[in-house]
Design goal:
The protein is mostly helical. 54% of the residues lie in helices and 3% in strands. Helix 1 runs antiparallel to helix 2.
């Protein structure tokens, strides 16, 4: 945030070089000096943003790699647990490094095509198709209360 306040101070300094009533430049030399400094500040901030966005992309790649490793490890553990379970048939084993025990659980099984009473169905809220709405509005369809807003988004390359 230090850079942002510096940018703001430069804006203020630039305004102080100009007669606000007439728009005339009062101190040309100083203004040229400030513009260079302002450009430097903008350059620093723009480059910082580019670096941060590059970091974001790198972190996203790391996340994908990490998530894949996590999933693979979990699947391997699950598959090995299933293997042991099939081999041991409820047998308990105690050892120095590990102990194998069993816990009863209950799970619902629904036969293919079984009729589930409506009371046990959970309604899913409607999802808005924003792209569909955008396309419709672009094609001139009038949708009361729904408008296509125009924004001016900064692009830094």
């Amino acid at each position: 945030s230090g850079n942002m306040s510096a940018l703001y101070e430069i804006q203020e300094d630039i305004l102080s070089c100009i007669d606000l009533k007439t728009g005339e430049i009062i101190d040309v030399e100083r203004l040229h000096g400030l513009q260079m400094e302002r450009r430097q500040k903008i350059r620093n901030i723009a480059c910082w943003i580019k670096n941060l966005l590059a970091d974001v992309r790198a972190y996203e790649e790391e996340e994908k790699t990490f998530a894949a490793r996590k999933t693979a490890a979990k699947n391997k553990a699950d598959s090995l647990k299933q293997y042991l379970s099939d081999c041991l048939h409820g047998e308990k084993i105690q050892d120095k490094e590990f102990s194998i025990g069993w816990r009863k659980s209950q799970r619902i099984h629904i036969d293919e095509g079984a009729a589930i009473p409506p009371a046990y169905l959970i309604p899913v809220p409607d999802k808005v198709d924003k792209q569909g709405l955008k396309d419709a509005l672009r094609q001139g369809v009038l949708l009361p209360g729904i408008t296509l807003m125009e924004y001016n988004n900064i692009q830094i390359q």
